[in-house]
Design a protein that fits this description.
Elements: H1 2-21, E1 26-31, E2 34-38, E3 43-48, E4 55-56, E5 60-65, H2 68-86, H3 91-124, H4 130-188, E6 190-193, E7 197-202, E8 209-210, E9 215-220, E10 224-232, E11 244-250, E12 256-266, E13 271-272, E14 286-295, E15 305-309
Amino acid sequence: MKNTFLSILIAAALMACNKRGNDHDASGTFETVETIVSAEANGIIKEISIEEGQTLESGQLVGYIDSIQLQLRKKQLESQIAALLKKTPDINAQINAYRKQLAVAQTRLNAQLIEKNRIENLLKADAATPKQLNDITALTDALQKEIDVIKSQESAQFSILQTQTNGLVSETIPLKVQIEQINEQLENCRIINEIKGTVLTKYAEANEMASVGKPLYKIADVSTLILKAYITGDQLSSVKLNQEVTVLVDAENKSTKEYKGIIEWISSKAEFTPKTIQTRDERANLVYAIKVRVKNDGYLKIGMYADVKF
């Protein structure tokens, strides 16, 4: 009698275990997109103010790499540019002398033209001689030629000075390009966090040597996690994109904690069952992967196991 009662209890316990073991449709682990932030400059890390578990905002300055040598190089290039620009001629000052000569010659020409007009009127009244008209005409022609020569000299000098200026300015162009490159390198010395999330791992400390590509820290957005699970072919008809499902996570005292999840991806092709994954039908060799997005309340962790119930 006693043995019979004990057998009944064991059978009931086994039935309960089997029932708990089949109260989900798929299993998987939580994951997220993890990003490794690396150094973009060479030098000593002067400051890196982050800790593992710290939440960072996008665009937040978290440290900087020594940039003294870059700043000195930039000042040197700026000095070279200033020295070249000082050599450029003052075109207005040098052309101004020709303009003054031109103004004087033009004034003399205007006066002679007035005199020529007066003599022409006198000649018509027989009060002047043709020789006087010829003399004044020759003088005005000479003054006009003098003005033409001054204008030609002014134009030639302007062209020479402009060529010199353009040559000196062109020599500053590669220097300015180098300054732009240095400005970009200086910007890269600032360690800017580009992704909002939580620091998972810190790889570097202040006063360590950094080089381009050296990992500084790993960060991920853990406000929502992705549960990657696997289902068998006969379960495909039970799931669809954007479907709301129940996610079950182990809690204290062998209880479970429920979360609402949304199926955001279903694999379009089958794959062999991963050895670490158990599906409802363990006899199936081919399964389909699904991803369920779950909002994290702080309890969920990357790598944690969970079950899915459709």
